[in-house]
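REQUEST FORM: STRUCTURE PREDICTION
Request ID: SP-0412
Submitted by: Lab K.M.
Chain count: 1
Length (residues): 251
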Amino acid sequence: MFTQTSHLLVALKKCLRAKGINYKDVARDLSISESSVKRIFAEETFTLKRLEEVCAIADVSIYDLAKMSRMHSNDEVKILSLQQERALADDPMLFTCFYLLLNGWSPDRIATDYELSTPAAIKLLTTLDKLKLIELLPGNKVRLLTARTINWRRGGPVRKKYEQQVMAEFLNSRFEGPETLLRFESTELSAATISIINKKIDALIREMEDLAEADTLLPPTERKNAGLMIAFRPWTFSLFEQEVNIPAQLN
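STATUS: Completed
RESULT:
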């Protein structure tokens, strides 16, 4: 069972990873041993003074850390009900509003950027509240009732409606420029190696989710939308499955 301290430290670790800071770096800045740093994280024996010192290293305030820890407390809700998915799939603006809230947008910014009237904006928020996706608070503030990363159901309403469109639009690019990357590798692998690669892909996706959560603390002007698509499966190029006629060698 996670305690409030546990949630704070999970959030702090994410902030440190986002800045590329490891336990060795923390130990150096605090003038203590690396083993001592590992121990206080593992045993959750932070004093308030020590917490402030590590927050300073991560360049995050305790207030922002508390906000992140509240986000993490919702991590158990990563799969929505069919009713919730259907409601989002049936209303593109409702889906857009929920997606933006997941990414740290405020209701005011959503209303301004999408030119929503006050009644229209409130209707979206109240609908999400009734679906138990958010809790609508006084002053049109919101608290997420889900994780920030949703595992959409395979064959579910959202994927059925948007998956093909998302993939087509994402791949409709030359992937040129310093912020883009497209690589394709094909080779023969053992079952053990395939298992290792799948675990590494899972770890990369989890790290991206952690970094994205830490980045929600940044001002909107310092963030941009980005997409990551990873595909891996047993596969043989169709050309290589065809019968190949090799001419006989001449004597």
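NOTES: The longest helix spans residues 191-215.
Reviewed by: T.R.
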